Amino acid sequence: MTEKQSAAQQATGDITPKPADVTDEVLFGDVWERDGLSPRDRSLVTVTALIALYRSEQLGFHLQLAPDNGLSKDELSEAITHLAFYAGWPNAMGAAAQLKAILADAE
Q: Which of 40, 51, 81, 99 is 20–30 Å from 90 (CA)?
């Protein structure tokens, strides 16, 4: 029986195993599990940072994770709209296109 690989292991574990391990053990195993913020709030902060910094490679994963952590489509849409004025129009429009594609795939 094979163990299901994490997203980090699937994405880069065969090329860069240590960063994938650190992602699993430290980022998601420790930082995301701390009591200071709820998973919902951590998702909102993460999505916001990724949009503001135009980190579209990681944004899709976190937009897919956000509803599992309690963020609604409307909340994500509102965050993107708000960020258009603080993080830049192209960043927000790129995020909106990714969210639209993710929601279409989920249907």
A: 40
User: Which amino acid, one-letter code, is at 68?
Assistant: D
Sign of CA dihedral 84, 88, 90, 91: negative
Phi-psi region of 34 (alpha: psi -120 to 50; beta: other; left: phi over 0): beta
Whether this model's pTM surpasses 0.70: yes
- Cα angle for residues 104, 69, 67 (degrees, 5° grid): 15
Q: How far apart are CA 43 and CA 82, in angstroms?
A: 16
Q: How confident is the model at residue 10 (pLDDT cuts 50, 70, 90)?
A: very high
> Binning pLDDT at 50, 70 and 90, where does residue 1 land?
very low
Q: Which two tokens stand for residue 16?
A: 């860069």
Measure the CA–CA gap between 22 and 94, rounded to whole angstroms.
28
The label of the residue with tokens 């429009």 reads 93
Token readout for 94 is 């790129």
